[in-house]
Amino acid sequence: MHRLIAFVVLLIAFAVPAKDTPRNPNIVLILADDMGYGDARCYNPKSKNPTHNIDRLAREGMRFTDAHAPASFCVPTRYGILTGRYPHRIKLNWRSRALVEKGRTTIPSALREKGYATAMVGKWHLGFNDGPDYDYSKPLVGGPVDRGFDSYFGIPHSLDIVPYYYIRNAKAVRAPTGKIGPRNSEGWTRIQGEFWREGSISPDFKHVEVLPRLTEESVKYIEGRKGAKNPFFLYVALPAPHTPWLPTKKFQKKTNNMYGDFVAMVDDTVGQILGALDQTGMTKNTLVVFTSDNGPVWY
């Protein structure tokens, strides 16, 4: 098994009068994609990646140092996290069907029964009951909103896997009716750098805009929960720093390579989420968990 970047927990809790806090804490679960155990400075002081916000979680919260992924690629961890089951109990053929079984208890479904509002933003990668000739004017069945989440915005799988399109709740925002060619980076192997596969893409989809868009949606959701009477669970499944490595201009040259720059961008996403909690006054009653799926596969 590959080493999993350990859970980092921030719990600044319950130091204010009960009348000012929900009965239960809010929960934000951030799942990075292919981020290594040693990429964050709070785990590796020699890391060349600036991870100030992840380090804040470690400094103000708790680090876990002995955790392991159930497999060496994306899907199994996501199934295991949401269901609490070992992923080897099912056949992980995510390309042809929804992997989380109908009626299966999940973290969001269990929390919803306890009065939580539940939302997901990001990479699902647990399949839908669709196919290569799917009619995208129809709902996508078997996804987040069918498995315990009240709302969802994100992408169906990794940023290097076709088709490329956004999903809002159970519908494609725009159907992947266009075509895009493959991309590779000079000086890197085929599955490194700005790598993605050729295939179908929606007209509004630009790979470099995805992480900023998901960050914006996460912050917007948190801001919208200010003043709510019931607590919330927000699952933020980032598609980064998995390939393609696409740091925006602000983060380029932060380190000495594309991957490190993308890690810095992931850290900034964490910072924006923490900032939204700070600005809405919800930090003191929010549990923040940061982890990764299976470690640094590509680099």
TrEMBL record:
This is Sulfatase N-terminal domain-containing protein. Residues 25-296 form the Sulfatase N-terminal domain. The keyword Ligase does not apply. The keyword Hydrolase applies. Belongs to the sulfatase family. InterPro entries: Alkaline_phosphatase_core_sf, Sulfatase, Sulfatase_CS, Sulfatase_N. GO terms for molecular function: arylsulfatase activity; metal ion binding. Keywords: Calcium, Hydrolase, Metal-binding.
